């Protein structure tokens, strides 16, 4: 049996700032580069093509559907997903190649590998507060895995086989500014609120206060956010606030049904 073919996929929308370095960081160990674009209006597509990537356009509906469609568009036996603001290195690449080469020797066969990330937020590596080691399901065997269509955000992989965790980390340049952080959290939080309503979960009045307080305690105390200093305090406050916003949006969405 020959070496498995590995496709590297990046989902993009206006990522000209990051896409060239992202693709360059994985070029040495993937067999195919695919950029799955959601209608970028900047130079993302041109930069990706110049870097040797095959660009596929698809209108964005949700993250799970986008990733599933991207896997269908790839040609590899295995898929390695990266975000545009992430970087791999040679150690990551070699570990992935070794893992997929030996996957068929495990019982049951390993079809999904999780990779840790080092998250840089507001210029600092966040080692606590819920952002470390931040394992993500990124290496998937095509045909044996699918992203759960019922989870449009914070995707969940359904795997027909076993799963394993890799050691070497991706570097994730997560949020550079507060405005960028808030914009993405608003988007994620609205998705989560819509999921709550779709699942028939309606926020109780006391949850508007209890759940944000619980989230702050979880991040700042239980997950040692205090060890990240002022960054940990700020991030714990922000995440507690977006738990509050999730409850508010869920109630608004439920009222409109």
Primary descriptors:
2 domains; 40% helix; 7 helices; 257 residues; 7-stranded mixed beta sheet; Spore Coat Polysaccharide Biosynthesis Protein SpsA, Chain A; alpha/beta
Q: Could you describe the 3D structure shown?
A:
The protein has two domains: 6-174, Spore Coat Polysaccharide Biosynthesis Protein SpsA, Chain A (Alpha-Beta Complex); 177-256, no CATH class. Helices cover 40% and strands 23% of the residues. With 257 residues, it is α/β, with parallel strands linked by helices. Helix 5 runs parallel beside helix 7 (229-256) and helix 6 packs antiparallel against helix 7. The strands form three sheets. The chain has a seven-stranded mixed β-sheet, with helices on both faces. Strands 5-13-7-8 form a four-stranded mixed β-sheet. The longest helix has 28 residues, at 229-256. It contains seven helices and 13 strands. The model has no long low-confidence stretch (mean pLDDT 95). It is globular and about 60 Å long.
Count, helices: 7
CATH architectural category of the largest domain: Alpha-Beta Complex
Sheet with most strands: strand arrangement: 3-2-1-4-9-6-12
**Low-confidence runs of at least 5 consecutive residues:** none
What's the end-to-end separation, in Å?
A: 54 Å
Q: Can you tell me the overall shape?
A: globular
Radius of gyration: 19 Å
What is the CATH C level class of the largest domain, in words? Alpha Beta
The percent range for strand residues is 15-25%
Looking at the structure, the CATH topology of the largest domain is Spore Coat Polysaccharide Biosynthesis Protein SpsA, Chain A
Alpha-beta content class: alpha/beta
Strands, total number:
13
How confident overall, as mean pLDDT?
95
| Helix/strand order | EHEHEHEEHEEEEEEEEHHH
Helix content: 40-55%
């Amino acid at each position: 049996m020959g070496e498995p073919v590995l496709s590297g996929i990046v989902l993009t929308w206006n990522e000209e700032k990051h896409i060239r370095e992202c693709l360059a960081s994985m070029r040495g160990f993937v067999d195919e580069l695919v950029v799955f674009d959601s209608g970028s209006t900047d130079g993302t597509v041109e930069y990706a093509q110049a870097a040797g990537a095959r660009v596929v356009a698809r209108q964005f509906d949700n993250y799970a559907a986008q990733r599933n469609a991207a896997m269908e568009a790839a040609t590899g036996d295995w898929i390695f997903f990266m975000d545009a603001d992430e970087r791999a290195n040679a150690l990551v690449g070699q570990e992935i190649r070794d893992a997929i080469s030996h996957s068929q020797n495990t019982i049951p066969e390993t079809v999904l590998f999780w990779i840790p990330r080092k998250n840089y937020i507001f210029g600092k590596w966040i080692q606590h507060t819920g952002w470390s080691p931040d394992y993500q399901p990124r290496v998937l065997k095509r045909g044996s895995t699918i992203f759960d269509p019922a989870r449009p955000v914070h995707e969940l992989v359904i795997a027909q086989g076993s799963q394993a965790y890799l050691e070497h980390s991706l570097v994730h340049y997560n949020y550079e500014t507060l405005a960028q952080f808030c914009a993405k959290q608003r988007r994620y939080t609205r998705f989560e609120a819509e999921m709550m309503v779709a699942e028939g979960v309606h926020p109780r009045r006391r949850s508007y206060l209890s759940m944000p307080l619980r989230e702050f305690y979880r991040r700042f105390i239980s997950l040692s956010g205090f060890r990240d200093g002022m960054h940990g305090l700020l991030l714990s406050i922000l995440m507690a606030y977006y738990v509050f916003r999730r409850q508010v949006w869920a109630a608004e969405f439920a009222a409109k049904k």
